[in-house]
Amino acid sequence: MKKALVIEDNEDNMELITFILEKSGFITIRAENGNKGVEIAMKEMPDFILLDIQLPDMDGTEVLKLIRKSNAMADIPIIAVTSYAMAGDREWLLESGCNGYIEKPINPETILSEINQVIGGRT
Q1: Nearest residue to 45 via CA among 63, 67, 22
Q2: pTM recorded for the entire structure
Q3: In what side-by-side order are the strands of the sheet with 78-82?
Q4: Cα–Cα distances in Å, from 71 out to 65, 66, 67, 114?
Q5: What are the residues whose beta carbons fall under 8 Å from the beta carbon of 121, sequence distance 6 or more?
Q6: 79-102 pLDDT, tens per residue?
Q7: What totals of helices (H) and strands (E) does the chain contain, helices first?
Q8: Number of structural domains in the chain
Q9: pLDDT digit string, tens, across residues 49-70
Q10: Which residues of 31-49 are buried (b: 16+ CB within 10 A; e: fewer)?
Q11: Can you tell me whether residue 29 is helix, strand or coil?
């Protein structure tokens, strides 16, 4: 089973995302802020990361940079999960190093298809 790290500060979003993932056979690890997310990512080496961009302690793009700096984690797929939905936001996050983009509010019907596109459909 693939292991997903979910870095999300909103409890409702965390519950929804982890429920969808676990129901689909993924193992989930939770982090409620950026610092904890980076720490857990380095320790657990997840197969992919769902990263909220608006976190309380640091911007999600900073989390992304810290993870990408690590040689061991440079290739881990990272999917931005964000309410940034203005024109150009998706492109900006992909150019910043994210492998995918999921818009909030979370749509349970489309979240898995985006994840499967990014991780190659291997659930």
Answers
A1: 67
A2: 0.93
A3: 27-31, 3-7, 48-52, 78-82, 100-103
A4: 12, 11, 9, 25
A5: none
A6: 999 886 666 788 888 899 999 999
A7: 5, 5
A8: 1
A9: 999 999 999 999 999 999 999 9
A10: bbbbbebbebbeeeebbbb
A11: strand
Q: Map residue 101 onto helix, strand or coil.
A: strand
Left, alpha or beta for 71 (phi > 0: left; psi -120 to 50: alpha)? alpha
Q: 114 is in which domain, residue-wise? A: 3-119
Pairing of strands 78-82, 3-7: unpaired
**What is the pLDDT, as a whole number, of residue 88?**
78
Helix, coil or strand: residue 74:
coil
CATH of residue 91's domain is 3.40.50.2300
- Separation of alpha carbons 3 and 29, rounded Å: 7
Q: Which residues have CB under 8 Å from 42's CB, separation 6+?
A: 70, 72, 73
Extended beta strands in 45-118, E state: 48-52, 78-82, 100-103
